[in-house]
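Sample entry (68 residues):
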Amino acid sequence: CPQVASLVDPNQLFGLSTAEPGQFFVNVRFDGILGLGYPNLAADGITPVFDNLVNRSLLRESLFSVYL
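Predicted structure, serialized as tokens:
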């Protein structure tokens, strides 16, 4: 069941990538890719995880941030 921090949506659909072209992912350690794009950019019409969390009122605000 997909989880972001302590937020869980057991009905979230997700895609699985078993191979990525090019060298970028060969040289970088990562645990996965989390799509935070707009729903109209989503593959196969799947609602992105952030939008599902907002739609299900699991977030206090429709806002996220990234710390680099």
